[in-house]
Amino acid sequence: QNGKDAQKLNAQFGTMKATDSCQGDQTACINSQFAQCVSGKWVLQACPASLSCVALPDLQKAGTSINCEDKNVAAAAINSCGVSGGLTGDGSVTPAASSAAASS
């Protein structure tokens, strides 16, 4: 279930914008950046070079985490949970609407 939950979150992150409202201490990924809710607004923090913000399945217990990670490593972590479809469930290793540059 954790793999499917991570895919669902990554798909949702692809539709989010920095101008969207948020509540409490929510965290998310917006434009491949780590986003934290502060006073009802998203504050974005860029990931280190070559990493993207993604939801990952917890491999120890029920749940997910949001971290900066290599997209291929993240997809492999989701696959290790027995689900297919990459980061978002559609076979992609790039979250929808990602601003990350294409790798060659």
Automatic annotation (TrEMBL):
Taxonomy, superkingdom: Eukaryota
Coiled coil residues, start to end: none
GO BP of this protein: chitin catabolic process
GO molecular function, one term: chitin binding
Matching Pfam families: CBM_19
InterPro entries: CBM19
Carbohydrate-binding module family domain residues: 11-55
Listed name of the protein: Carbohydrate-binding module family 19 domain-containing protein
Organism for this UniProt entry: Crucibulum laeve
